[in-house]
Amino acid sequence: MDFSTILTNPLVILALIFVDGLLFGLGIKKGVWSVMLIVLAVLLSEYINYSVIPSASLSSFETNIQNHITYIVQNLQTLIPGGSTTSISASLMLFAVGFIIGYLKG
Asked: How far is CA 32 from CA 26, 35, 61, 75, 79, in A?
């Protein structure tokens, strides 16, 4: 058996999609903790009147986050593969399961 034929096997592709979701979940969990610690550091620096970034403030940070979340919610339909919220494929389900496991175990 050739290596390229092994990688084109549908079961191997589904396993790789699951592993991809697992890795994304691990990365997102670490990223969420990083963002929380950065926000905490900025809040602490504003409390002691020390600006970490001269042109940034907490209110502008909140506004940027709200705008970003609003944009994602409004364009959610275009982000979903297939353009429909009712069609969920097996690969998307495997990715989601891998993502959840990676996030919870990370």
From this structure: 10, 5, 16, 22, 21
* Cα(37)–Cα(17) distance, integer angstroms: 30
Rounded CA-CA distance 78/94 in Å is 21
Cβ-in-10-Å burial (0-12, 13-18, 19+) of 93 comes to middle
Structure tokens at 16: 């790789």
pLDDT in tens, the chain (106 residues): 677 777 777 788 888 888 888 988 888 888 888 888 888 887 787 777 666 566 666 677 778 888 888 887 787 766 665 555 555 677 788 888 888 888 888 7
3-state secondary structure of 40: helix
Q: Is the dihedral of CA 27, 28, 29, 32 positive or negative?
A: positive
For the whole prediction, is pTM greater than 0.70? no
